[in-house]
Amino acid sequence: MEKGTRLSDIGVEDELDEEPGEVIESAPPLKVGEERELSNSGIKKKLLKRGLSWETPEFGDEVTIHYVGALLDGTKFDSTRDKDEPLTFKLGSGKVVTGLNNGIATMRKGECALFTFPSELGFGVEGVNGVPPNSVVRFEVELISWITVVDVSGDGGIIKKILNKGERDGLPCDEDEVLVIYQVTLGDGTVVAKTPEEGIEFYVKDGHLCPALAKAILTMKKGEKVKLIVQPQYAFGEQGRDVNDGFQTVPPNSVLDFDLELVSFKSVIDVCGDSKVVKKILKEGEGGFTANEGATVTISYTARLENGTIFEKKGIDGDQPLEFITDEEQVIVGLDRVAATMRKGERAISTIDPEYGFGTVEVKRDLATVPACSKLIYEVEMLDFIKEKAPWEMNNQEKTEASGRKKEEGNLLFKNGKYQRAGKKYDKAADYVSEDGSFADNEQPLVKSLRVSCWLNGAACSLKLNDFQEAIKLCSKVLDYEFHNVKALYRRAQAYMEIGDLVSAELDIKKANEVDPQNREVKLLQKNLKQLQTESNKRDAKLYGNMFTCVTNDSSVATKKLKVEKAEDEKRQEVVGMEMEKAVDSSAPSDNGMVVDSC
């Protein structure tokens, strides 16, 4: 075969994406009665009957076929039809000849085909009963069905055979709540566990029954039905399990067989990323768009405390639904964030921690009082929403008008001390008139003025929020346009001073003074800078002084140590001298004329 080509791809009508460096042989699908060699493999395939769908089995799948094997002269040597018993086997396992494996991998469910194999892909030089050596053989094959087989654990410990592929939705996640129906049996058919007819619900992350169940569920789609073969290490291991909670005894080291269906699952979303606002989707919404920030939303909901006390209803039992604009603090933060993630028609239940609810204060609502520090539960349905137009949906006039409105909204929020929300407004305002927009020359002055104003105001918000790096970035954007902009120099100098970069702050203040020598705010900032520099110099002087003192102290200690060592050395030399004198005396001739060796 050509590099990059699989036999199972031959005849598939869907186009394949060609990878760089790969050669993919493309050919039109076979017509009934047409014969063709499969990609220079030596296998010829003649289509006798079209199959269903477009899927083909892969090696490892469990296929069920009828076949009739014959020589070129028509002599039949094997047939499942004569026995009226189809053959089921794992594709690629060696159960059948190589050519038959490769041929079946090109077939669709219900398809009939006639394959012709050379001897090397058939029974080879030895042949078999009824097949002489080096014989070309033919197999007429009907692919009745196949079961996709998946090694879930990657080590053969959990084998999944897909009986029903389910819907084309996504897979569940660890946080999701699933509804499953299962029956678990031992190898001898003894049922050891079974759900009620309506199934059982649990969160995947919490696990259920044995480790294999959660691992398998994470690979399944809604409505999927499977058979699992679970080895002991993913079941109940060497200990087995005693009778409890209505489940039967599982002997040690037991292999379990599961019949499992994933009936449905409810997606659970950590809305704010800190597990303090958690949304569980009860009913999926329509389309691919969510309300997002700035949308006008219409919702109905029932709000209750953890003990079940309902404290508020909107759009329920004839009441008017609630309409509000997201990200405008018109409702509690948790409800606002949840609404911004919902699609039209979606229904969800959300748990909201006090931090995103009513906080530490007691609040009276329509139907009951919410105690301080209460966790809230909202069951919400998104009835409708109208999104703000995105910049790419607007003409240039609409963009500049929207930018101006957002800037004014930001100004109002800034005056009220709501700096974070004001900063978001300025960001949006700047986005409407971004440099990517195709504005005409006569529009540029207004557009540039809006950008500069939004960046400067955004920098002011960042300073209030102690986000000094963001303030520096925004002011630098302004100075790229207007290098002499005093406000940008002033605010960037403030940010530099806050992060301790006094040199950069001094440069910005110097430039600002050159542009506007009479600016009182700049002069006051310069005075503050000088004070900071004086304090910094004092700290540096003290630091260096301490370092000098340490060096002097170290030098004194070293000098004293040297003197002590010198005195000790002189004492040692005196002792050695005395011992030498004794040694010289002891080496004098004795009475017997011998010399005594002092060593």
Short description:
TPR repeats lie at residues 486-519. By secondary structure, the protein is of the alpha+beta class.
Task: Give an overview in words.
This protein is of the alpha+beta class. Helix content is 31%, strand content 23%. It has helices at 80-83, 98-104, 211-217, 333-339, 396-415, 419-432, 444-464, 468-481, 486-498, 502-515, 520-586; strands at residues 35-37, 44-49, 62-71, 76-79, 87-90, 112-117, 137-151, 158-164, 177-185, 191-194, 200-203, 225-230, 256-266, 268-270, 277-283, 296-305, 310-314, 322-325, 347-352, 363-364, 369-370, 376-386.
Biggest sheet, in brief? 13 strands, antiparallel
Mean pLDDT: 87
Shape assignment = elongated
Write down how many β-strands occur, each being a DSSP E stretch of 2 or more residues: 22
SS field, number of helical segments: 11
Structural class category = alpha+beta
Radius of gyration: 42 Å
Proportion in β-strands: 15-25%
Distance between the termini: 94 Å
| Helix percentage range | 25-40%
Low-confidence stretches: 1-25, 575-599
